[in-house]
């Protein structure tokens, strides 16, 4: 038997929904749980050739099950003794329904421990069963939409097979010519001779203590 079956029937286990530190265990296990898996696809209409389907990967799984909140504890079907009042339990599910954060759905003794959104919660009151509340739940598995960053190790491995484009910004340089001055270069390269001091600040080590003594052939970094 696989870890997650499309249908789970008659197995002793606990069904729990967790919202951060809030944990809610269903007092009565469902007789059946369904997990629906579908593959996404796009249909293209081509003239004279008809329709073609192109697969787009697995879609979000949908999990559904039905059960009820009993008014009175009955050891023959309740999973624990201190069961919540049915209306309180129903309100907890309603809180989960409007939550904008993903919940965690857990079935003990299985590998089912997945982040989900509760997307549908329907309740039913049946005549002759005063106080009991029946419900149907639908959940959809949640996927993080953020793109994961590559670890340093992974990036190193990728670099062995792929040439990575260097996006680091590089400053423009200027080769000093005979007759040049910093103010002349600033006028030519930066549009204003008054910006000569910006060039000097970036190239003090190359020029030296006197900004007026630049030499032909010196490579100056531009702001």
Layout of helices and strands, plus pairs?
Layout: E1 7-8, E2 15-19, E3 22-25, E4 33-36, E5 39-46, E6 50-58, E7 62-69, H1 86-98, E8 103-107, E9 113-124, E10 133-141, H2 152-161, E11 173-175, H3 182-190, H4 196-202, H5 204-207, E12 219-221
Antiparallel strand pairs: 1-4, 2-3, 2-8, 4-7, 5-6, 7-10, 8-9, 9-10, 11-12
Helix pairs in contact: 3-4
Strand content: 25-35%
Count of separate DSSP helical elements: 5
Please provide the count of β strands.
12
CATH class of the largest domain: Mainly Beta
Helix content: 10-25%
Task: Give the count of structural domains.
Answer: 2
The secondary-structure element order is EEEEEEEHEEEHEHHHE
* Straight-line N-to-C gap: 68 Å
Annotated CATH architecture of the largest domain: Beta Barrel
The computed structural class is alpha+beta
* Major sheet details: 8 strands, antiparallel
Low-confidence stretches are 1-10
The rounded Rg comes to 34 Å
What spatial order of strands do you see in the largest sheet? 1-4-7-10-9-8-2-3
Q: Could you report the average pLDDT, rounded to the nearest whole number?
A: 80
The CATH topology of the largest domain is given as Elongation Factor Tu (Ef-tu), domain 3
Can you tell me the overall shape?
elongated
InterPro entries: Bact_Kbp, LysM, LysM_dom_sf
Protein name: LysM repeat protein
Domain LysM: 172-222
Organism: Paenibacillus amylolyticus
Question: How would you sum up this structure, described in words?
Answer:
The chain has 223 residues and is α+β, with helices and mostly antiparallel strands. The chain has two domains: 7-41 and 53-141, Elongation Factor Tu (Ef-tu), domain 3 (Beta Barrel); 173-221, Membrane-bound Lytic Murein Transglycosylase D, Chain A (Roll), CATH 3.10.350. The chain is built from five helices and twelve strands. The protein has an eight-stranded antiparallel β-sheet. Helix 3 crosses helix 4. The chain is elongated. Residues 1-10 have low confidence and may be disordered. This is LysM repeat protein. Pfam families: LysM (PF01476). Residues 172-222 form the LysM domain. InterPro entries: Bact_Kbp, LysM, LysM_dom_sf.
């Amino acid at each position: 038997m696989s870890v997650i079956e499309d249908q789970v029937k008659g197995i002793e286990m606990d069904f729990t929904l967790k919202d951060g530190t809030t944990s809610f265990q269903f007092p009565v296990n469902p007789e059946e749980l369904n997990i629906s898996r579908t593959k996404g696809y796009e249909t293209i209409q081509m003239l004279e050739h008809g329709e073609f389907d192109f697969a787009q990967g697995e879609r979000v799984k949908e999990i559904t099950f039905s059960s009820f909140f009993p008014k009175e504890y009955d050891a023959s079907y309740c999973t624990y003794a201190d069961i919540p009042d049915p209306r309180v339990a129903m309100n907890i599910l309603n809180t989960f329904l409007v939550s904008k954060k993903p919940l965690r759905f857990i079935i003990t003794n299985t590998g089912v421990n997945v982040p989900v959104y509760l997307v549908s919660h329907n309740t039913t009151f049946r005549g002759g069963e005063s106080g009991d509340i029946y419900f149907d739940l639908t959940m959809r598995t949640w996927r993080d939409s953020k793109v994961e960053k590559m670890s340093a190790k992974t990036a190193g491995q990728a670099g062995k097979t792929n040439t990575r484009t260097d996006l680091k910004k590089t400053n423009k340089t200027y080769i000093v010519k005979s007759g040049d001055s910093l103010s002349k270069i600033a006028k030519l390269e930066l549009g204003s001779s008054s910006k000569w001091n910006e060039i000097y600040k970036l190239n003090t080590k190359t020029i030296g203590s006197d900004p007026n003594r630049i030499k032909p052939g010196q490579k100056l970094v531009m702001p």
